[in-house]
């Protein structure tokens, strides 16, 4: 009997260790699979540079690009540019989130408001962000206002649409229950609407963050004197292809990091819903 109880006590621990081991193995496997393509690209790049299949002025060897990248990190060019770009992204993204969620919630809660405003909002956002840059330049100049406007434009639509769709997906009987319990409007928003729309908001946040980062790089390339996009444009003007390749790598890694953080936040705060990606 004692032996049976001991084994019964040990089973949960073993099961937990097994799950941890399986999770670790799956993580390592996924990481290994994800590295295959970059490694193949790096090998092909090195072969091309070694045999000069492409002019070294056009495609510098990996060692040269790595050396330039380390120099740009050591002298502060990359850290300073990333700090400036991240500040711009976070500021514009935050404004876009506030505007988008507010507008989406208003359209979702009021069919009359959606009928008046919805078509105009959709038509406004169907025009690509790049097409708005000349207009924003004329109105706002080429200062920080231009960058913020472009990022807000790029990021607020995913918030608005996902908030709208999340609210409209709530069954009407839930609102009937809220009315039967005599919830105030604030209580209905806090206890019914917000939990229902939260998974959609986080899904929209990931898309909005990606849009904001890409829009920022473009506008910094066109009208900026600092930032990671400016570094890329400067390298192109000076025909410093190693600098261009370094900035491409930094932009890709920074965008991947932002998406990973957003995905982690989505899983953390919407785990209960079963909608986390």
From TrEMBL:
Major subcellular site: membrane
Transmembrane segments: 33-53, 89-109, 121-142, 241-258
PANTHER family membership: ALIPHATIC SULFONATES TRANSPORT PERMEASE PROTEIN SSUC-RELATED, ALKANE SULFONATE ABC TRANSPORTER-RELATED, MEMBRANE SUBUNIT
Keyword Plastid: no
Every ABC transmembrane type-1 domain range: 82-262
CDD domains: TM_PBP2 (cd06261)
Location of this chain's protein in the cell: Cell membrane
This protein's UniProt keywords: Cell membrane, Membrane, Transmembrane, Transmembrane helix, Transport
Top-rank taxon, per record: Bacteria
The family this protein is said to belong to: Belongs to the binding-protein-dependent transport system permease family.
This protein's record includes keyword Thylakoid: no
Lipid bilayer topology: Multi-pass membrane protein
Classification via SUPFAM superfamilies: MetI-like
Name used for this protein in its record: ABC transporter permease
Entries under Pfam families matching the protein: BPD_transp_1
Higher taxonomy: Bacteria, Pseudomonadati, Pseudomonadota, Alphaproteobacteria, Hyphomicrobiales
UniProt cross-references to InterPro entries, sorted A to Z: MetI-like, MetI-like_sf
């Amino acid at each position: 009997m004692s032996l049976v109880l001991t084994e019964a006590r040990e089973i949960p621990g073993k099961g937990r260790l097994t799950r941890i081991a399986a999770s670790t193995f799956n993580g390592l496997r996924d990481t290994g699979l994800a590295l295959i393509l970059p490694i193949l690209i790096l090998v092909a790049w090195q072969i091309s540079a070694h045999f000069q299949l492409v002019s070294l002025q056009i495609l510098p060897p990996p060692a040269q690009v790595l050396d330039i990248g380390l120099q740009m990190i050591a002298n502060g060019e990359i850290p300073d540019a990333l700090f400036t770009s991240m500040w711009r992204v976070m500021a514009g993204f935050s404004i876009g989130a506030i505007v988008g969620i507010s507008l989406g919630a208003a359209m979702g809660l009021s069919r009359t408001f959606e009928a008046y405003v919805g078509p105009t909002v959709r038509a406004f956002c169907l025009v690509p962000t790049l097409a708005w840059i000349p207009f924003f330049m004329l109105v706002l100049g080429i200062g920080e206002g231009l960058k913020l406007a472009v990022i807000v434009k790029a990021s607020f639509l995913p918030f608005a649409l996902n908030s709208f769709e999340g609210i409209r997906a709530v069954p009407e009987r839930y609102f009937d229950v809220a009315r039967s319990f005599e919830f105030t409007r604030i209580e209905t928003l806090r206890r019914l609407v917000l939990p229902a729309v939260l998974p959609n908001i986080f899904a929209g946040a990931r898309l909005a963050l990606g849009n904001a980062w890409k829009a920022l790089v473009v506008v910094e390339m066109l009208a900026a004197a600092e930032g990671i996009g400016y570094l890329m444009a400067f390298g192109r003007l000076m025909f410093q292809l190693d600098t261009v390749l370094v900035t491409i790598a930094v932009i890709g890694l920074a965008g991947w990091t932002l998406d990973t953080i957003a995905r982690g936040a989505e899983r953390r705060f919407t785990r209960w819903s079963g909608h986390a990606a």
